[in-house]
TrEMBL record:
Source species of the chain: Aegilops tauschii subsp. strangulata (Goatgrass)
Catalytic-site annotation from UniProt: 190
Protein name: Aldehyde dehydrogenase domain-containing protein
Lineage: Eukaryota, Viridiplantae, Streptophyta, Embryophyta, Tracheophyta
MF GO annotations: oxidoreductase activity, acting on the aldehyde or oxo group of donors, NAD or NADP as acceptor
Family, as annotated: Belongs to the aldehyde dehydrogenase family.
Length: 422
């Protein structure tokens, strides 16, 4: 059974990634500036879980029996779509690699994977482990290179049958254009965000502050789901701000190999300068700096975790994706206002709601236009939880059984039931 064999190889691949987690963590921390402790648990842990989850799915991909009119019977086949082009960003190199490679393998596709030019190391190691696990030659092809050359070659290639892309909204647009100009390959895009975290008066302040910190400063804010718009109901605002300022006093920025460190350097000079220019915009537009607001350290691309208060919805820092450790605090009064302001964005990736009121929570989860709404939690992602946005955050799902769909082509097969009418 080919599908079962694929699953077996993927399980072996997962074991190998787990066995080499120490080296892989070092590579990932070195390449992306991630604190080592968290990288081992989060980035490598998630990668292994992804492989095991989709390994189990490999032999459970089947079609339907169709109830056609009397004369015919039909069924559908879900076949591998062919060659998958997988273009990956630099913020979670390992997680992104397996959130695409694992379902593509389970579906039976071959693939060309392009890691980001900033962070190619773990992908190369994963390719090496794939060989050891018994993945046949030619199935996983890792190609390093720059976006406009190597990435664009995949997006415009006539023999690539689909592209799954994670990255910026502007490059997502280029990928879709390249597909339209070449062979109209289907694309799946996981793009930027400007996600809201909405904290109601009845929330536990400590918990809400903790969520806001991790939702903005985890992975130095280099996360597409970062909750960079934090809306606080007016009754909780002052207490929240006070507690947040206190909590940030013990936040440590520095060498990602030091176990006490919470936040490493930004991925490179370009990103660091981009984030600092957003911080300058915030200051110039009249927002108040509560914490941080400048680079730190003697060398390297370190930025102080920055919290702005008095942010207005039309400020650039409240509208554009910053992709760095910058949190914007805004005040609101009613549920209706929170819904309207949360949805007043081009993006629709994620949202967080903090409340003990089940009615408010239900209303928010139904009203927010986003791919995921987290209630009293944030960043709660897992292999079986579909992930992917709406609006200009893209379309198509990574993770969960839905992730398989983009790697499969549905074929209908029809035969006469009795004698052929022809
Ligand atoms: P960022 O702007 O955050 O660096 P990008 O969207 O540029 O993120 O990068 C995500 C991935 O897309 C990377 O692997 C990058 O090399 C690739 N990429 C960049 N430009 C293109 C392009 N024109 N076509 C295809 N892939 C690209």
């Amino acid at each position: 059974n080919g599908a079962q064999e694929r699953g077996r190889i993927m399980m072996k691949y997962a074991d190998l990634v787990e066995q080499h987690a120490e080296e892989l963590t070092l590579l990932e921390s070195l390449d992306a500036g991630k604190p080592r402790m968290a990288t081992r648990a989060v980035d490598l842990g998630t990668s292994v879980r992804s492989l095991r989850y989709f390994a189990g799915a490999a032999d459970k991909i089947h079609g339907e029996t169709l109830k056609m009119s009397r004369q015919f019977q039909g069924h559908t086949l879900r076949e591998p779509i062919g060659v998958a082009g997988l273009i990956i960003p630099w913020n979670f190199p390992a997680i992104m690699f397996f959130s695409k490679v694992a379902p593509a393998l389970a579906a039976g596709c071959t693939m060309v994977v392009k890691p980001a030019e900033q962070t190619p190391l773990s992908a190369l190691y994963f390719a090496h482990l794939a060989k050891q696990a018994g993945v046949p030659d030619g199935v996983i092809n890792v190609i390093t290179g720059f976006g406009p050359t190597a990435g664009a070659a995949i997006a415009s290639h006539m023999d690539v049958d689909m592209v799954s892309f994670t990255g910026s909204t502007s490059v997502g647009r280029l990928v879709m254009e390249a597909s339209a100009r070449s062979n109209l390959k289907p694309v799946s895009l996981e793009l930027g965000g400007k996600s809201p975290l909405i904290v109601f008066d009845d929330a536990d302040v400590d918990m809400a502050v903790g969520l806001a910190i991790s939702a903005n400063f985890f992975n130095k804010g280099e996360a597409c789901v970062a909750a960079s718009r934090v809306y606080l109901q007016e009754g909780i605002y002052d207490g929240f701000v006070k507690k947040l300022a206190q909590r940030m006093e013990s936040w440590v920025v520095g060498d990602p190999f030091d176990p006490r460190v919470n936040q490493g350097p930004q991925v490179d000079k370009v990103q660091c300068e981009r984030v600092l220019s957003y911080i300058d915009h915030g200051k110039r537009e009249g927002a108040t700096v509560l914490t941080g607001g400048k680079p730190c350290g003697q060398s390297g691309y370190y930025i102080e975790p920055t919290v702005f208060t008095d942010v207005k919805d039309d400020m650039i820092i409240a509208k554009e994706e910053i992709f760095g450790p910058v949190m914007c605090l805004m005040k609101f009064r009613t549920v209706e206002e929170a819904i309207a302001r949360a949805n007043d964005t081009r993006y629709g990736l994620a949202a967080g709601v903090v409340t003990k009121d089940i009615d408010v929570a239900n209303r928010m989860t139904r009203s927010i236009r986003a791919g995921v709404v987290w209630v009293n939690c944030y960043f709660a992602m897992d292999s079986d939880c579909p992930f992917g946005g709406r609006k200009m955050s893209g379309f198509g799902k990574d993770d969960g059984m839905h992730a398989l769909d983009k790697f499969l082509a549905v074929k209908s097969v029809v035969t006469p039931v009795y004698d052929s009418p022809w």
